[in-house]
From TrEMBL:
EC numbers, comma separated: 2.7.11.1
Domain Protein kinase: 50-518
UniProt protein name: non-specific serine/threonine protein kinase
Residues where ATP binds: 82
Gene coding for it: cdc7
Lineage: Eukaryota, Metazoa, Chordata, Craniata, Vertebrata
Organism: Pundamilia nyererei
């Protein structure tokens, strides 16, 4: 691909101008103008090729700009310029590039056109695809559009999984969708990891980077007491996970030595063999043997609300199945018309929300299969996925006692909710919190109470406000025209398989593409 030089064209008042789809120029904000100027200074060679006209995305590890260039044949073409933050590890940047060059450019996976580097600044140039955000169009999508969207997402996952790539951050924002042209593109491999047999050599190098000591439940967001669930009224369970330090006085712990099983010093220092349980196994207390265990290292990268159960429980052996789970969460959102579907402030609350949907017995059984023990003091029934989605869409009246609401944290209830995750033997203990189920209000169904995004609080930011469908009386013929009254059983069967709690039995992307839901594709 050949480029002709293109320079920045300043306006008469000194502000950079932006070209829209109609090739008209309009001013951009001063903040974006400063960011563009900084990028030109950081990577000067960009000015010889691109005219950067807008900033179209920003994340924790990168910013994305829209650049325009003139090809040698006279055509003007748009590109997405991803500027990686200088603090990114060189191996991580190189691994992302290798994922794009090896697996990208086909099967709905974004490719790479060029790459610029100036000292510690790296800019990855990719084809630009105009797309619509799911949060903006979810209320108007037809079932056929949803079916095609999931089909092409699974197609992209099958492709990258064949190369041994685990994307780790599957979500609608990373799977671009052009509704008009029916084009799709999987983007952002910044958190990608490799399987044991990955074909991406640099992903193998990242394994060494992950061996740095890190606690499993010691992350800051889990040990901090958040006052509210993002101002969500129907809050899930709040727990505080504490890892005692070596200098901590035993008498200062909530569970004093008088409540712990009596053990001698020699027994507390004795290593725990795999499969051997201690006296606090499956209880709400923790013994000295468990306190002496070393912290477990496990990958945790991903976006809250889309993490699989094995990620939430810090299972060290994570594979491509975590991407499939995330695809299932996306399908759940699209079928129910609610995005985001899960919204939790920490991993424990996220696990409780999954329990509320898939059932506590099923969650406990699945966790046991990959070496974790989950304790729940109350039995949560497994929800019927069709009933749940149709209720949330307003296609059927709320079935009483069919959907269990998430409890709301209070300080004056006698009903307690115990949750603990264990790795064969208990290693961490949550602080008890007294909780009580929220009383259903007249205008809210039990199904609505399942999801945290059904709160009545109004937020100014779009990310904090979940998309809700119109009231049932406003839907009628519109829902019929979009096909939501004729969703086949195969759609919910696939959803059930994608949201299999056990990663070893969860359907793969390749198997999902052979599902009867896609028989005509």
């Amino acid at each position: 691909m050949e480029f002709s030089p293109a320079c920045v064209e300043p306006s008469t008042d000194g502000c950079l101008m932006k070209a829209d789809r109609g090739h008209k120029k309009r001013k951009i904000s001063p903040d974006v103008e400063m960011d563009i100027e900084f990028l030109y200074k950081a990577v000067p060679q960009l000015a010889k090729v691109f005219r950067i006209i807008d900033k179209i995305g920003a994340g924790t590890f990168s910013s994305v700009y829209l650049g325009e260039t003139q090809m040698r044949d006279g055509r003007r073409e748009m590109f997405a310029l991803k500027h990686l933050i200088p603090t990114s590890h060189p191996t991580r940047i190189a691994a992302e590039l290798q994922c794009l060059t090896v697996a990208g450019g086909r099967e709905n996976v974004m490719g790479v056109t060029y790459c610029f580097r100036k000292e510690d600044h790296v800019v990855i140039v990719m084809p630009y695809m105009d797309h619509q955000a799911i949060v903006d169009i979810i209320g108007s999508l037809t079932f056929e559009e949803v079916r095609l969207y999931i089909y092409h997402l699974l197609k992209a996952l099958k492709h990258i999984h064949q190369f041994g790539i685990i994307h780790r951050d599957i979500k609608p924002n990373n799977f671009l969708y052009n509704r008009k042209s029916k084009m799709y593109a999987l983007v952002d491999f910044g958190l990608a990891q490799g399987t044991a047999d990955t074909q991406i050599e640099l992903l193998k190098d990242l394994i060494e980077l992950r061996k740095a000591p890190r606690t499993v439940f010691g992350e800051r967001d889990l040990n901090s007491c958040t006052p509210a669930l993002s101002n969500t009224k129907h809050a899930a369970i709040r727990t505080e996970l504490v890892k005692p330090s070596k200098t901590e006085d035993a008498a200062s712990r909530k569970y004093s030595s008088a409540t712990l099983p009596v053990r001698t010093q020699s027994s507390s220092q004795r290593p725990v063999q795999r499969g051997l349980t201690c006296n606090c196994y499956f209880t709400d207390r923790v013994c000295n043997v468990c306190l002496s265990r070393k912290s477990q290292v496990a990958p945790r990268a991903g976006t809250p609300g889309f993490r699989a159960p094995e990620v939430l429980t810090k299972c060290p052996n994570q594979g491509t199945a975590i991407d499939v789970w995330s695809a299932g969460v996306i399908l759940l959102s699209l079928l129910s018309g609610r995005y985001p579907f899960f919204k939790a402030t920490d991993d424990m609350i996220a696990l409780v929300q999954i329990m509320t949907l898939r059932g506590s017995r099923e969650t406990i059984k699945a966790a046991k299969s990959f070496g974790k023990a989950v304790v729940c003091s109350r039995e949560l029934p497994r929800q019927d996925l069709r009933t749940l989605c149709e209720t949330l869409r307003g296609l059927r009246p709320s079935p009483d006692n069919k959907v269990t609401p998430l409890p709301e944290a209070t300080a004056d209830s006698t009903d307690t909710y115990h949750h603990k995750i264990q790795d064969d033997t208990p290693t961490h203990r949550p602080t008890e919190r007294t909780l009580k189920p929220h009383k259903k209000e007249a205008d809210e169904t039990p199904a609505e109470l399942l999801c945290s995004h059904t709160n009545k609080h109004k937020h100014s930011g779009g990310n904090d406000t979940a998309t809700r469908l119109p009231k049932q009386e406003k839907m009628g013929e519109e829902e019929d025209e979009r096909g939501w009254d004729r969703v086949p059983d195969e759609a919910y069967d696939l959803l059930d398989k994608l949201l299999d709690l056990n990663p070893s039995t969860r359907i793969t992307a390749a198997q999902a593409l052979q599902h009867p839901l896609f028989k005509d594709l």
